[in-house]
Design a protein that fits this description.
15 strands; elongated; six-stranded antiparallel sheet; 16 helices; alpha+beta
Length: 423
């Protein structure tokens, strides 16, 4: 993270690396123009107008959820490394958007009273560096207005979310991490999709992902809230591989055949169901090959033994087809861009014993699915404005159009991919 290493915003850092020596002469000239009374009056009026917009956004943070930034780097999966992005325009506008968005470079994660602070710091930077503020303020105001207009058009859903997760008396409390937080990822962390980041990827849109494996090269997880609409038994009936059917029959799955099947992610290993299937459950205590991935939750283990333990209550087992996977650097850049809100069970707030594990189990195995499960997780992580962000079939068409226009504008202003960056 450039902020952690250099103490400044990413756009300022990248522009500073390539700034020509003649900039100091231009800044001195601009400073002389900046000080004229007439110009100062216009600039202060523009600043006050922008400050009103930012204060309104701070009062209604949902507006900031749609204030998209232009990331200074993206991950190129073909080369397996980050690439610097080159855009026209002022780096100071991007720095202001970055600060207003809670430290994410593309998809905002609003925090209290950041927008007005970002506008004030932007004004101070423009005066110090001698850049023409009127042009800067107009560009920044257009970005705030576009986000405000979008939220006004799609409306506020007025959702009534329960404070208690279905089936449990004690809700789980999650601690969310800002995009600039560099604390170590851990098994049991949750990734919650930003409302706008995966509109074109159905498996990840409004997803709740549980990270279940972290090693030196790879990070894996399962999407928890995307049911496929079939049970495990129905899938086996349609499955063409006879060896898989024989394998399932030998396990004595019983009531687990009525368990719903979920789409765990876009990656499916192997051709057999035995290789592709994953199971998350609460019956792993003392079970060989079962890994505890969250308090009271286990992944894998001998499926026949899991079926025997779950014979009376199969609700403690969930099956997934496929999983999600990232390289460490890829996920780091996606978190930096705000694609995900990273959250973790809050150790100092979670009760001990069965209630603590019960809250996590409700998050991972409870009745809530799809959008309700995602909204519940967002609210548990303290991101209420994202949890309430309008999403519905008609609204989603409008949101996809907005994101596509922003990306088209980025491509229009972009000079393309720059040279590869070192991680």
């Amino acid at each position: 993270s450039s902020i952690a290493r250099f103490g400044c915003c990413p756009w300022t850092l990248l522009r500073a690396r390539s700034a020509p020596a003649s900039c100091s002469v231009a800044r001195a000239s601009n400073c002389r123009r900046f000080g004229t009374p007439g110009m100062m009056g216009k600039e202060r009026a523009a600043f006050r107008q922008l400050l009103r917009l930012s204060r309104a956004a701070d009062r209604e943070p949902m507006r900031l959820v749609a204030l998209l930034g232009r990331p200074p780097r993206r991950y190129d999966p073909r080369q397996g490394r980050p690439m610097a992005m080159k855009y026209g325009g002022s780096p100071f506008v991007e720095d202001a958007v970055f600060e207003a968005c809670g430290g994410s470079t593309e998809f905002p994660q609003p925090r209290p009273r950041l927008a007005a602070r970002a506008v004030r710091r932007h004004f101070d930077r423009a005066r110090t560096m001698g850049f023409p503020y009127l042009q800067e303020a107009a560009s920044l105001a257009r970005r705030f207005e576009a986000a405000r207009k979008l939220v006004g058009e799609v409306g506020t859903p007025g959702l009534s979310l329960p404070d208690v997760l279905p089936g449990y008396e004690v809700p789980v409390t999650l601690q969310s991490f800002p995009p600039t937080e560099n604390s170590q990822l851990a098994c049991g962390d949750f990734l919650l999709t930003h409302p706008l980041s995966c509109l074109f990827e159905s498996v990840f849109d409004q997803a709740v992902v549980l990270l279940d494996r972290i090693d030196a090269a790879q990070i894996d997880g399962v999407v928890l809230n995307k049911p496929l609409g079939v049970t495990l038994g129905q899938m086996l009936e349609r499955w063409q591989n006879e060896q898989d059917k024989e394998w399932a029959a030998s396990l004595g799955l019983g009531a687990l055949l009525e368990s719903r099947l979920y789409r765990g992610g876009p990656i499916i290993e192997g051709r057999s169901l035995e290789e592709s299937l994953r199971w998350l459950h609460v019956h792993g205590e003392g079970l060989a090959d079962a890994r505890e991935v969250a308090p009271g939750l286990f992944l894998g283990g001998e499926l026949g033994a899991v079926a025997a333990r779950a014979a009376e209550d199969p609700s403690g087992v969930r099956f997934f087809l496929g999983f999600a996977g990232w390289t460490r650097l890829q996920l780091r850049i996606e978190l930096e861009c705000g694609v995900w809100v990273r959250a973790r069970v809050k150790a100092d707030a979670a009760p001990t014993g069965a209630s603590a594990s019960g809250g996590v189990q409700a998050m991972c195995l409870g009745a809530a699915e799809r959008s309700p499960a995602w909204r519940m997780a967002m609210r548990s992580a303290g991101m209420s404005d994202m949890a309430r962000f309008p999403r519905a079939p008609g609204v989603d068409r409008r949101l996809r159009g907005y994101v596509e226009r922003v990306h088209q504008e980025q491509r229009r202003r972009s000079w393309g991919l720059g040279k590869p960056l070192n991680p």
